[in-house]
Write a structure and sequence with these properties.
mainly alpha; TIM Barrel; 4 helices
């Protein structure tokens, strides 16, 4: 990985994104192995749907990636205003979860 730059994206669960939650203990083991091979920051994604889950991942990773949960907020909304409010609420919750972790 000597010629790599940016960050690594670790997919925390196998299967459909959003279908299950990542197990922090399993992710920690995988990240330990990956960090032994690179100095790049590692972002973890797939299955992160709440501030609490984002906080757990932030304890062990350099970043948490959330996609499907935000898309779901939009898909479930009945109006543009509702979609904006739902995305803002979830993004704020996830941000608070990540920020609650001190490294």
């Amino acid at each position: 990985m000597k010629n790599s730059s940016g960050f690594l994206y670790y997919v925390s669960i196998a299967g459909t994104t959003g279908a299950a939650a990542p197990k922090p203990e399993d992710v920690a083991v995988a990240l330990e192995r990956i960090k032994a091979a690179t100095d790049l920051p590692i972002a973890v994604g797939f299955g992160i749907r709440s501030g609490a889950q984002a906080a757990e991942i932030a304890k062990i990773a350099d970043g948490a990636v959330v996609g499907s949960a935000l898309v779901e907020c939009i898909a479930n909304a009945t109006s543009d205003a509702e979609a904006v409010k739902a995305v803002h609420t979830l993004a704020s919750e996830i941000s608070a979860g990540v920020q609650s972790v001190s490294k």
